[in-house]
Structures are given as C-alpha cells and as structure tokens.
Design brief:
This protein is α+β, with helices and mostly antiparallel strands. Helices cover 53% and strands 20% of the residues. The longest helix is centred in the N-terminal third of the chain and has 73 residues.
C-alpha cells in the first residue's frame, strides 16, 4: 500500500489575511520611506559640501579684502605720521603766548602764518604805560621764544583807549 502525500490546503481566515496585507503595506511604506530619506540625506550632504566650499571661498575673499583695507589704512597712517612729524605745530605758540602778554592788553584780529612763523594781531589797552610794559615783556621774551617783534599803528582813540598792531616772529623751537 502506498501512502500518498498530497498537500493539504488549509483555509486561512480573514483575520490572518488582513494581518498579512497590513504587514506587506507596512513593509512597503517603511522601505519607501527609507529610500526617500536616504536620497534626501545624500542630496543635503551634497548641498552642504557645496555651501562649505562657497563659504571657504567667500571667507578667503573677505579676509583678503580686509587685509587689503588694512594695508591701505596702514599706508594712510604712515603718510599722516610723516606729515605730522614734518609739519610745524601751532600749539607751541599757544602755550608760550600767555607768558609774553600784558594782562591789561587785549588782542584781536589774530593771524598766524606758520611757514614764516609770523603772528600778526591788533592790541587794545587803556594807556601808553601798558604798551611800554608790553614792550619790556617782549624784550625779555626775545631770549626765549620771540625772534623779533614790531609794534605799529599806535593810536589814541577819543574814548582814551590805545590801539596798536603787533607783529611777532617766533623762534623755530616754538612751532616744533
């Protein structure tokens, strides 16, 4: 007697079929999501690499531009330093001016010609004695900061005020 082996078909229930279909759908969705995210990640990595290269190029150009600006500023500073060191300074005059002026004489119309070191001004006082004292102060100051001086146009006004012009040539040390 021979035994016959034949496959027996088993009836699957509706519940098992739905579970199988749901598992296949979940598998397909998961696989699709995986491949989609993988391709997006590769694309974003590529964009990031391009952005990094662009940033490195721009940063290098920006640094070079800043270096060029700093070199230009350094050149301007060096030029200014040369001009400043070789240019006479009027500030020395203003520190010495109070030493050689009489307290009762007021000055106006101030002009300072730096290349010739000549100072021209108009003075006003209330008497000739103050002018004489101013001349004595100027004589003493010729040893320190005044090379020469000249008082001209001395006038007595109707109000009793004396006006005059004073030209002073300063020593070179005053403007250095």
């Amino acid at each position: 007697m021979a035994i016959e082996i034949a496959p027996v078909k088993k009836d699957t229930g509706l519940k098992e079929t739905l579970i199988l279909i749901a598992a296949i759908i979940i598998l397909l969705i998961s696989s699709g999501t995986y491949f989609y995210l993988n391709s997006v990640a590769a694309q974003k990595d590529n964009e990031l690499g391009q952005a990094s290269n662009e940033l490195a190029t721009l940063a290098g150009a920006d640094v070079k531009a800043k270096e060029d600006e700093l070199k230009l500023a350094g050149k301007d500073i060096a030029d200014f330093k040369v001009l400043f060191e070789n240019n006479p300074k009027a500030s020395g005059f203003f520190t010495s001016f109070p030493r050689w002026t009489h307290p009762r004489v007021s000055y106006s119309g101030f002009t300072f010609d730096i290349p010739t070191r000549k100072v021209t001004m108009a003075g006003t006082t209330n008497g000739f004695q103050n002018i004489m004292q101013q001349i004595a102060i100027l004589k003493k100051e010729t040893a320190v900061s005044i090379e020469s001086y000249e008082i001209s146009n001395v006038n007595l006004s109707e109000t009793g005020l004396v006006t005059f012009n004073l030209d002073v040539i300063l020593k070179p040390e005053v403007t250095k």
